[in-house]
Amino acid sequence: MAKTANNSKGKVGKARAAGKQAPAGKPVAKRTDSRLARGKAAQKSRLQARAARPREKRGFGKFLRDVRIEMGKVTWPTRKDLMQSTLVVLVAVAIATAYTGVLDFAFSKLVDVVLNVLT
Fold first, then answer.
1. What does the pLDDT look like over 57-94, one tens digit per residue?
2. DSSP symbol at 118
3. Structure pTM?
4. 6-27 per-position pLDDT tens digit
5. Are 87 and 94 in contact (CB under 8 A)?
C-alpha cells in the first residue's frame, strides 16, 4: 500500500493516522490502554447488574416445565387434517416406489442385454 497523509505506517502508527500529534518527548498513549480501561469498567457494571437481578433457575426440571408450556402453545391438527396428510404421504410414497421399481427393472434389463452382447 502506498503511504498517504491519512494512512502512514511510521513509528507513531495509529496516532498519526488518527490525526494526533505527540508532544515533544512524551510517548503517545496507545488505544488499547483506553479500550482496556473501558472494557474493565463495562465488565464491572455487567457484574453489578448480574448480582442485582435474581438468579434464573436452571436445570432439568425447569426445562421440562418450559417444554410443557411450549407444547400448550402448539396448534395441533384435527383428526380430519391428520388423516388427509397421512393419505397424501402414503400416495406420494407409493408413486415414488413404483417409479423407482420401474427404473430399476428397466436398467437391470439394459445391463443384462449389454453383458450378453459383450460375452
1. 678 989 999 999 999 999 999 999 999 999 999 999 99
2. H
3. 0.42
4. 555 555 555 454 555 555 666 6
5. no
| CA–CA separation, 34 and 100 (whole Å) | 68
Grid coordinates of 8:
502512514
C-alpha 6/C-alpha 14 separation (Å) is 10
CA distances in angstroms from 8 to 1, 42, 64, listed in the order given: 10, 32, 60
Each residue of 92-112: b (16+ CB within 10 Å) or e? eeeeeeeeeeeeeeeeeeeee
- Is the separation of the CB atoms in 38 and 31 below 8 Å? no
* DSSP-derived 3-state class of residue 20: coil
DSSP code, position 18: T
Asked if residues 12 and 29 have their Cβ atoms less than 8 Å apart, the reply is: no
